[in-house]
């Protein structure tokens, strides 16, 4: 018999009671020594075991029998409580607790490392193009308000670069996504006295080039090579993937901490991410490969990409040695995410050799 207390339905008052279960699967409830209820055990609702917390058995009439004799309840209802007994076994053995902790950590790590990027890629490519335009509008507004100022490049030079871009460069991407309408924007980007040479692409096809980037480019091909790289980010929707990943992480943090104050506007989130975060190595490699393939089609030597990347990196390194500004260091850290690495130079040289051989496809 199991000793405990009986609670009438809807009442906190309790009475001393005992509970008995027969081999035939029937139960009997004794209150103050007298049988008050009998019935089939299958009609009972038994709460799960949580350590040594009082166990509750809800009877057919809605009344409740409570007991601290959890072992007896497990013994009486072992057939119905197999899963619960297994969970309790895990909870009371330190070895299994350690295993569960390791599994939890690995699962969480896998979710953030592989799960979120995979889901972000699928969602980014499933969203209609109109979504990209809506998000990019907020991003452009954010960048113009907080990062950029009006360009100092003459309108004549702007129009010359735009016309060349639309005629020779933008047109060769139509096969990837005919919905993309590329628009070239010129902006000045300064952090204190430091001018930032860079190019950014929004999911909508808006590509922003900075004054210092145009200044450092010695040839038209160098500008084109970087624009093709940014087009690679647009075609493969890397900016949108990055924003979705950030949203996933924000939501996950909200669920864990219960703090929703950091969940901002999606467009602003993307604009901020473009400034403060780097594309992943995989994103950069994918955009590089896209650019190099298109350079062969456009009759541009991929070595141009290596040259402009070297010029920008060299300029930023010189500025890094001459400045100690915290703001400048933040931007230098950002630019350091786009290095002229050995792998990128090697790939560029490979495609450059194909270009010199007159090939449009490089094996």
Keywords, separated by commas or semicolons:
363 residues; alpha+beta; PH-domain like; 3 domains; seven-stranded antiparallel beta sheet; five-stranded mixed beta sheet; 13 helices; 55% helix; 16% strand
Runs in which pLDDT lies below 50 for 5 or more consecutive residues are 262-277, 330-339
* SS field, number of helical segments: 13
Radius of gyration: 33 Å
Q: What coarse outline follows from CA principal-axis ratios?
A: elongated
Number of folding domains?
3
Trace the largest sheet across and list its strands.
Answer: 4-3-2-1-7-6-5
Tell me, rounded to a whole number, the average pLDDT: 80
In short:
With about 375 residues, the chain is an alpha+beta fold. It is built from 13 helices and twelve strands.
Structural features, described:
The chain is of the alpha+beta class. It folds into 3 domains: 2-81, PH-domain like (Roll), CATH 2.30.29; 93-126; 129-356, no CATH class. It is built from 13 helices and 12 strands. The strands form 2 sheets. The protein has a 7-stranded antiparallel β-sheet with strand order 4-3-2-1-7-6-5. A hairpin with a 5-residue loop joins strand 6 and strand 7 (64-67). Helix 3 (94-126) runs antiparallel to helix 8 (238-257) and helix 7 crosses helix 10. The longest helix has 33 residues, at 94-126. The radius of gyration is 33 Å and the shape is elongated. The N and C termini lie far apart (80 Å). Mean pLDDT is 80; it is low at 262-277 and 330-339.
